[in-house]
Amino acid sequence: MSFSRTRLWDGKIPGTHEPGFVEAPLVEFDPPGELAALKNAAVLVRTFGFGECHVILSREDPDDQGLRWHLSISHPERHPSWDEIKTVRYRICGPDIGDEAHGW
Hints:
Layout: E1 26-29, H1 36-41, E2 42-50, E3 53-60, E4 68-74, H2 82-93
Antiparallel strand pairs: 1-2, 2-3, 3-4
């Protein structure tokens, strides 16, 4: 099954980064079968790899109050760093979406 790719923002990430932070590529891939329940509840589901982090972007209406963006970032061994969270948020959402689009 093929799907359209998400357009990523390629601008400069605002603010500062911790010393030694190197931005990993944000790579989109087909959502795995384990997300079938989420795919049924959401209008849109996209999955990405960002270094060792896993990223899910969805558009859902959990409380019948209208569609909302949900961005989830995880790492298998630790909490994602602020630099990872900020970079993924800007790459996926761009600079024009306010922080109401958070899910972290």
